[in-house]
């Protein structure tokens, strides 16, 4: 059995989801004729596999979760949307006349965001982009993208990159997911397995697969607010406010220490 | 990275799809709270992975494809529904007062079919069941289940088992999918790769994955009507009629040679 090729799985998926939604361009068909929904497949390192419809990456604001709308009200000044994907959030900020840059590591996602009209895009990691002269007032991590902190090793490095990109008074507005409310034995035992290996319970090790392509394996962090607070220590950032109205999801606002 | 356990992936998926549809029993939740759609994940031996919502296995007749309805009009006498799954088709035949047995190799699928009210079920391969004394007038292979012919090696064995289970004048009513209408390079090159290995172009090698469980790898045949006609030679069965109204899907009616 052949292994999938390593590549821009997320971008290929977003390209197809965009083609299906707009009806423009080649897209996967069942039996060569019937459109089929684009599904994101995520493998976890314990062998778990999950699929979820990918269409939500293209959702217009009327289909968003309530916390996405509340997050936008927390933005001010020049916004860097990190993990901007197909530009769902950044496009809305742009429509509202705000200065916004969409950053993503996926060429396919950036391509779709630009085709959808997002003007200011960056294809880079935050580390790479932190060497540029750009400065921001708000860093936005929506769609569970607090997960990009990855874990205790990566989080301080990631946060230091944001500090370099920060104007005075800058804030991070991030949406996280507390993984510990579940009683599903598949997840409870995964959390235990992680802790036994010295990892945070919700420090997921994942890869994306789409058709013939897989991403590399990467860490993605689902953590509690308490764990986030702990991760921030010594980074020069602190929790300023937390909105837990949509549990298990939450919005965390982080600011620079004075 | 751990490999998935080998088990009744299809059955576990059907159990969850049933729990999600009825709202009864434990089912996968996002973040421990929000219901998530049940997705069937299929891997192909070239590394292709596809996901598709599993809910259609539970569809009531008003949501069926038109050829499913036409297939039921071709049934007569005692019906063996092969690969009955969650009992979608068999339950409707039972409602109409027909004698119908639902056969499947998945314990989880049979369990759900019984919970949904299907009275006559068999947990077996057709080969195993052909050793029983039961006899049928119609063998039903819907939901692409002509694919259970697998390929040139398996087809005569499968058809011989049906011959042993057949009353005089019995027919097979099977729904197939012609795979050769596609121009998708992912599929076109897979067909070529198969032929280079002495297989039929659409002789798929697949496994199902659902959460922590995978099926064994199996062959599943998408073939043209012409290939089917060829496969039937010497088996004692022949094509009696073909309904191609819903291309690339078709209904094939096969009868015993006289």
UniProtKB/TrEMBL annotation, chains A, B:
InterPro entries: Methyltransf_25, SAM-dependent_MTases_sf
Domain Methyltransferase, residue spans: 79-169
Listed name of the protein: Methyltransferase domain-containing protein
């Amino acid at each position: 059995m052949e292994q999938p090729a390593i590549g821009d799985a997320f971008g290929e998926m977003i390209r197809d989801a965009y083609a299906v939604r707009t009806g423009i361009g080649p897209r996967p068909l069942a039996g060569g004729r019937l459109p089929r929904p684009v599904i994101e497949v995520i493998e976890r390192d314990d062998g778990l596999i999950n699929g979820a419809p990918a269409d939500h990456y293209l959702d217009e604001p009327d289909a968003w979760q309530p916390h996405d709308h509340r997050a936008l009200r927390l933005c001010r000044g020049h916004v860097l949307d990190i993990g901007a994907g197909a530009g769902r959030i950044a496009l809305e900020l742009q429509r509202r006349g705000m200065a916004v840059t969409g950053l993503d590591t996926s060429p396919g996602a950036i391509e779709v965001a630009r085709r959808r009209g997002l003007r200011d895009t960056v294809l880079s990691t935050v580390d790479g982009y932190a060497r540029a002269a750009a400065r921001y007032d708000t860093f936005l991590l929506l769609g569970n993208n607090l997960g990009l902190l990855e874990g205790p090793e990566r989080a301080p490095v990631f946060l230091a990159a944001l500090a370099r990109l920060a104007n005075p008074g800058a804030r991070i507005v991030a949406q996280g997911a507390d993984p510990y409310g579940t009683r599903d034995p598949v997840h409870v035992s995964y959390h235990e397995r992680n802790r036994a290996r010295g990892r945070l319970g919700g420090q997921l090790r994942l890869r994306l697969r789409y058709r013939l392509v897989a991403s590399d394996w990467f860490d993605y962090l689902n953590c509690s607010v308490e764990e986030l607070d702990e991760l921030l220590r010594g980074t020069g950032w602190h929790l300023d406010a937390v909105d837990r109205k949509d549990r298990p999801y939450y919005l965390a606002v982080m600011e620079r220490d004075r």
